[in-house]
Design goal:
Elements: H1 6-16, E1 29-32, E2 35-41, E3 50-56, E4 63-66, H2 73-82, E5 88-92, H3 98-101, H4 104-111, E6 115-117, H5 119-125, E7 133-134, E8 140-141, E9 144-148, E10 157-161, E11 164-168, H6 186-198, E12 203-206, H7 215-236, H8 243-250, H9 259-275, E13 280-282, E14 285-287
Parallel strand pairs: 4-5, 5-6, 6-7, 11-12
Antiparallel strand pairs: 1-2, 2-3, 3-4, 8-9, 9-10, 10-11, 13-14
Helix pairs in contact: 6-7, 7-9, 8-9
Bound molecules: zinc ion.
Length: about 290
Amino acid sequence: MGEPTIESLYEEVRARTPVRVDDTPVTIAPVAPGIRVLALRTPTLPPAAHTNVYLVGPDAGPVAVVDPGSPYPDQQAILDAVLTDISIAMVLLTHHHGDHVGGATALADRWNVPIAAHANTARRLAGRVRVTRIIEDGEVVHGATSVFTPGHADGHLCYEIGAATIAGDMVAGVGTILIDPSEGDMALYLASLERLLARPAATLLPAHGPAIPDGPGKLTEYIAHRRMREQRVVDALATEGTLAELVATVYSDTPRVLWPLAERSLLAHLEKLLREGRARNVDGRWSR
Ligand SMILES: [Zn+2]
């Protein structure tokens, strides 16, 4: 068996998380000038149960549709109904995860529009979703400026539109962001958070949960949180241990149901520390 994918990790947590009755009404709503949002149900990481689809452009279109992530036909039908009166120019992807791309092909085929993403995203989606336009860092696409923000995924792009930034999985309005070392990188993620923080202050529009008006505040909080966790890892390494042993120490404040995910994040921290010469790994046992 190979490395678990993020999708399989999400599924594992979903399987152990009590199902809540979901009565969130599906409606399209403005969130920033020229940006509307529609939250569709997706197989994502609990407690989030939806991925926000953002429509960028004038009321009647043409719009760029960002992250049509739902693989479920009933949810895709809701999006199709919304788009009946709005012309669509393209599908834009923030990154390759299933809960962001699950409806991309169906939508692009239905409206005969291109799917645009970073080259690394296109590579990871090869054979699953055909990306027909590659977006580079800093490129302006349909009025949105792309910002390359690798870390959660190696092809992650945010999109700046005026004073709002579509943030993908850089931050979450509900739930947490997983850095899984099989396809993510903790050092890059931290650098990307810093990169976003250094840009003009913006409202962050996350893929999961409501808009975050104080973007810089949230980014600062995220950076501080990851640094705190890293310090806990460094402290825990005073006693040599396996990954499983370290999880119990470093994530003692995290519900056990999330430990399979925490273990991935822990490994991402450890690999960063290893590269920095601040951790050692001998036969699966970690120490300073
Ligand atoms: Zn993701």
